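Morning!

As promised:
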Amino acid sequence: MAVSVFLYTFADLDKSLRMKQYNMRTFFNVEDLGDLQTALAEAQEVKKNRFAFQELGRNKTLLMIFFNNSLRTRLSTQKAAMNLGMNVIVLDVNAGAWKLETERGVIMDGDKSEHLLEAIPVMGSYCDIIGIRSFAGLTDREYDYAETIVNQFVQYSGRPVFAMETATVHPLQAFADLITIEESWKTSLGGEPKAAPKQGRLEGSRPKVVLTWAPHCRALPQAVPNSFAQWMNAADVELVITHPEGYELDPKFVGDARVEYDQKKAFEGADFIYAKNWSCPGVTRPADYGKIISKDMSWTVDAEHMSWTNNGKFLHCLPVRRGLIVTDDVIESKNSLVIPEAANREISAEVVIKRMLEAL
Amino acid sequence: MAVSVFLYTFADLDKSLRMKQYNMRTFFNVEDLGDLQTALAEAQEVKKNRFAFQELGRNKTLLMIFFNNSLRTRLSTQKAAMNLGMNVIVLDVNAGAWKLETERGVIMDGDKSEHLLEAIPVMGSYCDIIGIRSFAGLTDREYDYAETIVNQFVQYSGRPVFAMETATVHPLQAFADLITIEESWKTSLGGEPKAAPKQGRLEGSRPKVVLTWAPHCRALPQAVPNSFAQWMNAADVELVITHPEGYELDPKFVGDARVEYDQKKAFEGADFIYAKNWSCPGVTRPADYGKIISKDMSWTVDAEHMSWTNNGKFLHCLPVRRGLIVTDDVIESKNSLVIPEAANREISAEVVIKRMLEAL
Amino acid sequence: MAVSVFLYTFADLDKSLRMKQYNMRTFFNVEDLGDLQTALAEAQEVKKNRFAFQELGRNKTLLMIFFNNSLRTRLSTQKAAMNLGMNVIVLDVNAGAWKLETERGVIMDGDKSEHLLEAIPVMGSYCDIIGIRSFAGLTDREYDYAETIVNQFVQYSGRPVFAMETATVHPLQAFADLITIEESWKTSLGGEPKAAPKQGRLEGSRPKVVLTWAPHCRALPQAVPNSFAQWMNAADVELVITHPEGYELDPKFVGDARVEYDQKKAFEGADFIYAKNWSCPGVTRPADYGKIISKDMSWTVDAEHMSWTNNGKFLHCLPVRRGLIVTDDVIESKNSLVIPEAANREISAEVVIKRMLEAL
């Protein structure tokens, strides 16, 4: 038989993927972005003129697949792709209604109407880049931390894939957080963030950044604190993580950061406070994975908490429950960066999609 | 601290809004459109070539936010924005699932997962113009008529905001109604509506326009009749409003229009019949606000009703329940304008969005 | 009264439709495509450069109306329209929530909130082309096979209408199937499918194509096998249809194809196996219309089944239930064409929409 003219068959799929494993094909972890200072400089370039790269996206299609609800990510990522001149298709998958079979040798007479080995390559065939949101189930730690769903898209779609929050990471958020911290830090040092700093360092000095757990009424995933810790560890900041005992994040995300169980000590001298709730990561208490093991309201970030800091700025990924995570006066203060932080989601998404387009 | 590079912080928000309070920043009431004859002439210009203004919308994004279902408004507004070269993001908010906290000082441990003070500025940061649909709850007159939800978007989004039907007004519909009446009236006078009439008058003479209540099986908002009355009062027509006792519209919308409880007297000599059901506005009967207080089928517009008119044209905003509001023969007659009236929704939306783009 | 300037009124609607009944105004059956070889050549032209016809779609809007769920059709059709430079509006109609009244003389005080005589022309007024998905109810054969819903769109929308799977046909799938079979057949004959064959024949020889029923756990419509049979009958292939007794397809789709109740005999020497489940078409057993009358697992296509063929290729429209319709080894084999077949959905949609644009 002559050379196939088809896009790919199952037999070709592995080879096709191997051939394309270059440049920016995935965006899940901070390493996927390469040199962070280059990326931050690129973010400022994009921010100055977010419509400057429209030829890159011409006749290219982004497929955004949501297995879970989304507001900020949906809007900011769609906006970023349109800034780049792309076509965008949004696919809302009701997680309950469309279950993908992942095993072979199964008689599919139950509630799973399609096998991922068909569904994923087919979706890949109608687009150029895939963004995917698929939250942690919070019942099976091993399954969640293996990133099963998302890895299948990487393996079988034949397309670059980026996370719009997966079971364990939310890198578009963490990148936007870093952009915001860099902008604020440079501004506080008296300079606009126009030039990329040398040697991978935030100019002038090293800010102290504190990731603090705060109470919440629902069990939330660890994706945001995981990625934030990973990105801050890669950036030139002093990272301190503080939370009640039992809330230890996975060591691969904590890295060399200092873990401090005394919230006041953690906050002392802090330049940035990043508040977030997360459920038990199951590191020290495997049986408690995904559960709420504290609702200690003394961890809510209020004006007294902020008074312990070095005139610290306040960040949160949003949405935020006021009164639980943070008080009204803190989030509405001039030191609150939550709105520009959210606005930078458009910028982080645009840099990532731009790079994926360049690598197509 | 140096000048902030952020889009805005909470502290900047008020100033930012004040700075931008010029030209067409909102579209809720007929006054927002300025001179009506200029607007009608612009509508005809847009209708002649609806793709003539695409440079205006280049790299601009319309965010359409729906707290309630929509067919006509969704399609016509999206079409209008695309005619203008804009990018469009449609956000369907399940009113039950995403409740915004509006109070300060609350511990948000209930069903409201986000505070409007974060949600609205964030949505504003991903777009250039906002269209919003948020129906009346029909249980609390004061809350509905204060336009609480929509005013929060005006106050906190930092963007121009237009109504895609709010608790009390539906100006895109009323503007389309006026365009349709003007076209029909000029045509009936023997001329095409090509030239803008002088002195703000529909040429030739003043048509008699009757807004008539008609029965319905469900309790409906007053937004459509409110806006229709407001717009007709501003236009050069003779407006008569007719309905059973208890259905009096809010005086600020009724204005100087004649209210006639005898439907036959109201219809006599009418050039245009605008039928619509609405629930009790609670003006004369506060306790009945939002309730059905009459299902009198003698108010259904049938051929006999139309025989009382001056060969009157029939209008309705759609969707319409046949047999309750109007009979088949009337809505299908050559005097029925409901289809071109709906088609003019694209034109009214395009004029409004065009003006907002010009004012950006 | 002077000539109306309105798009159309009810009185004009029939005339407007008559005037526009030329060229490609509908796409439901294989005859709508005209000469098949020309269409196949056009498919290859589109596939070589799917962005070559963007001027055609400039400022044109496709409205995709879904009364039922969709994955492949939604994505591939949207992609095809964007390839052609069109604007796309997707309308998801919850079949339960938005019921259209179809009768006249009815008092609409029930669950039907709009009459199709308003809803359809209004939707038509906001777009240039309509795609519609509306599945069979599988309870009333006469209603389903009359294609009531879709025909109303053809009659009242004033726009070209194409099927995105209706009660009885799925021509975008069948066209993609034919493209895939032609590509594979030419490739197997040693040539790339670059030149359109002469005389309406697949070059070289006539492949044997077998449409085989296979078991399923849910009652499925007959649209896919109906259209596949219709298209294969129109193409230059030898078509054999095989299924258990009682599953006879409607004669108008079966045409001159051989029906063979012995699956093994049917498969012997086959070049292409097209597997699909369908519920009872009610041809020989009217009372069983839409029911499952066999779950005979001996009909599942496995390696032994494929061994009966002439090194046959395997096709399925997807989604497919593995273990019921086909085994893992067959669908994952190098002879499986299901992924390129799905990818060709973009091509078949693009040819159809391109032709409709040319006929506007």
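The two ends of chain C are 29 Å apart (CA to CA).

Hope this helps with the figure draft.
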